[in-house]
Amino acid sequence: MQVGMHVSISGSIDRAVDNAVAMGCTAFQIFTRNPRGWAAKPLAAGDVANFRKKLGASDIDRYATVAHMPYLPNLSSPEDDPFARSLGSLIDEIKRCSKLGIPYIVAHLGSHKGAGDKKGIEKLVKAFNKAADDTGDDVMILLENTAGQKNSVGSDFGQLASIFEQLRPSKRFGVCLDTCHAFAAGYDLRTDKAVHDTLDKFNKTVGFENLKILHLNDSKGEIGCNIDRHEHIGLGHIGEKGLAKVIHSVNSKDIPIILETPIDERRDDLGNLKKVKELAG
Asked: Which of 74, 153, 172, 233 has the maximum number of C-beta atoms within 10 A of its C-beta?
């Protein structure tokens, strides 16, 4: 099973590999820079070399590593300046992933800010296609489903599929499915049957062949709440039974699992990783 956490790059980016190995991860996700700002320091050549060397010496497959876009970019923005800045950030992140040898970058789909789904999707497709044109083909852009927050796009599998179908070249794009987001958007994952039905719906619209990474998170909110609040594995409204079924389903397809769970007095990262392995049997 390929499973791990979002890990820290504090100190230098190659420390992420150390952190992942120390926790017993067989997959991991990082931010390549500070996710809460626009500015990004260039990657130091020595840090890049150390990252690649450490990853190569570990038992973690390169295709079980992924980076995540920072928080500020909005690729569906109807406003020209924020859109251009967001597109620039996406292109820069793809280039940083290429240097590090990370094959996937997860991108939030953004908000149309009241301009409507049609306008938001037009901007989003424009951004993704431009980013693919302006970068090498060694990094795949993964579209992450949303929780259905106001003005967001991509929470409905059908809409996600329609966005995906407009992207060119198709080999540059894949999907990252987040269980908390899907549940918050109204897709039931609480029982074996519910998971089967939801994943079958995903397969018939988006296609399992396009699913490259699973974000495994429980949900603080009820089904259909449209609130993106992650919970510890098994302690939220999805629960252990449903998440165990999800784990078994994606494991059978060799899809890496990344946890983005909270850290608090109830449980830490190691505790959530242990719980996933327990549910996997």
From this structure: 233
pTM of the model: 0.98
Active site residue 96: no
Give the pLDDT confidence of 57-74 residue by residue, as tens digits: 999 999 999 999 999 999
Q: 12-35 pLDDT, tens per residue? A: 999 999 999 999 999 999 999 999
> Which residue out of 6, 33, 112, 230 is catalytically annotated?
230
Under 8 Å CB-to-CB from 68, ≥6 apart: which residues? 6, 29, 30, 31, 35, 105, 106
Q: Where are the beta strands (DSSP E) in 132-244?
A: 140-144, 173-178, 211-216, 218-219, 230-231
Annotated active-site residue in 6, 33, 96, 108: 108
